């Protein structure tokens, strides 16, 4: 379970080095939007060399390649797979079929570079095109290498011509809230982690904390980050508090002590199966928080 997933531009030696000091659970070396086309060839080699050196990091190391329908994508894969990253972030996925296409490419790349078959995970950015929204339910049939599902609003907004993505009170406007919710449900249906999109205003710590708290409230278990200063806030938001853990344990013990009961009374309120399921999820989250690789 990855709480914080930090984007690091793959062409920046400085930021790659800096990322070693950041307590992100997962690092995404970017070869796509954060890297200018001219800088890509060098960025690929830089990321590959960094991965090969391994650096004994506890964070999982992923690479965001370019979209599969670009000429960059096969070049990205061919080079970075030499470094055996823990996973690939797939931007602008049109449908789960893209994940299957990437799976086949990874099968071949793993074989070529002596990487264990199936070891490379896939994290799609699943809502970046309007048509992709109508395929989200199918990710449950593409789950072999799936590490989670995440979503993005920027490209979606540009595609539909939205003037703004903001609704009231710093929340998403309806179209983007829908994409966010569908990502959450699709991830849950596929049995993988739902990862909330990034909070772009990286100087707004309170806004980030509120955004991460809403994501946790709704069922997301991690969030993308773009700046080192966001990582601790995100980690804190997705780490169950001591009170939450105590409460979860109490509910599990209550049901264990009353194996015949479907519904029970706990501190003056009714608890039943969904509460037990939720209590187990909180303990799982507590155990896996900061799981790294
Ligand atoms: N990863 C690693 N280090 C980062 C970083 C990142 N994502 N973002 C900033 N840093 C480093 C800076 O190099 C700087 O290092 P220093 O203290 O050694 O000088 C330090 O953290 C503070 O950075 P700051 O000056 O506050 O920000 P900036 O103006 O240098 O950079 C951004 C702002 C947005 C350009 C930068 O955060 C960034 O590149 N983010 C990632 C962008 C990205 O990958 N986007 C793709 C996903 S949408
Ligand atoms: Mg993008």
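Sequence proposed for the structure above (293 residues):
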């Amino acid at each position: 379970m990855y709480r914080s997933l930090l984007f690091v531009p793959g062409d920046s030696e400085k930021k790659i080095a800096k990322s070693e000091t950041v307590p992100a659970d997962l690092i995404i070396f970017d070869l796509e939007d954060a890297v200018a086309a001219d800088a890509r060839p060098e960025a690929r080699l830089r990321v590959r060399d960094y991965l090969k050196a391994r650096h004994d990091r506890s964070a999982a190391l992923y690479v965001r390649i370019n979209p599969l329908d670009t000429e960059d994508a096969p070049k990205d894969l061919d080079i970075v797979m030499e470094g055996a990253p823990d996973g690939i972030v797939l931007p602008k996925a049109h449908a789960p079929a893209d994940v299957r296409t990437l799976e086949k490419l990874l099968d071949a790349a793993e074989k070529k570079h002596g990487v264990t078959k199936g070891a490379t995970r896939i994290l799609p950015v699943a809502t970046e095109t309007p048509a992709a929204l109508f395929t989200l339910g199918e990710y449950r049939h593409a789950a072999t290498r799936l590490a989670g599902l995440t979503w993005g609003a920027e490209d979606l907004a540009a595609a539909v011509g939205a003037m703004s993505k903001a609704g009231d009170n710093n929340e998403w406007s309806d179209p983007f809230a829908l994409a966010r919710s569908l990502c959450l449900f699709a991830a849950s249906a596929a049995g993988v982690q739902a990862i909330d999109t990034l909070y772009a205003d990286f100087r707004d710590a309170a806004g980030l904390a509120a955004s991460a708290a809403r994501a946790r409230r709704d069922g997301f278990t991690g969030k993308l980050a773009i700046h080192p200063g966001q990582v601790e806030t995100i980690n804190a938001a997705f780490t169950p508090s001591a009170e939450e853990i105590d409460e979860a344990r109490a509910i599990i013990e209550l049901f264990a002590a009353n194996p015949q009961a479907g519904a029970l009374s706990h501190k003056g309120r009714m608890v039943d199966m969904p509460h037990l399921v939720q209590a187990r999820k909180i303990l799982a989250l507590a155990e896996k928080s900061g799981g790294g690789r």
